[in-house]
Amino acid sequence: MKNGPPVIFIHGFMGTLDVWQYEPKHASPDLLGYGEHRSVPFEQISLPAQVEHIRGFADARFGARRVDVVGHSIGGSIAMLFAHAYPGDVRRIVNVEGNFTQGPRGRRRRISDPTFCGARCPA
């Protein structure tokens, strides 16, 4: 994979990806509220904020290169929203257990609601 595209791994709700052995072009940033970003106030943490956080990370780390994105659980949902908001920045996406189809109640329903991801979502 030395000549392949950079890969961003996005962890789930109760996880982290403290994997220092990744090659330099692979990355696993802490989401807002986790690890080095755990001091971010709760009211500033939202799915749109996470998408913008991943965008800023990708720009700083990889510049204009398109990335592959792998997300698990809520990280899968963030990965899907990131790819939707910035399709030109994402080459491929892997969504592991990021559920957009659960019933009409609960958090998963709100995540799947197109108006939930803010201004970047198309009408």
Characterization of this structure:
The structure is a single chain. The protein has 123 residues and is α/β, with parallel strands linked by helices. It has helices spanning 47-62, 74-85, 107-112; strands at residues 7-10, 26-27, 67-72, 90-96. It has one domain: Rossmann fold (3-Layer(aba) Sandwich). Strands 2-1-3-4 form a four-stranded parallel β-sheet. Helix 1 packs across helix 2. The radius of gyration is 14 Å and the shape is globular. The protein starts with 6 loop residues before the first strand and ends in an 11-residue tail after the last helix. Mean pLDDT is 76; it is low at 102-123.
CATH architecture: 3-Layer(aba) Sandwich
Here the CATH topology equals: Rossmann fold
Give the number of domains. Answer: 1
The Rg value, from CA coordinates, equals 14 Å
Separate helix tally: 3
Q: Could you write a compact summary of the structure shown?
A:
This protein has 123 residues and is α/β, with parallel strands linked by helices.
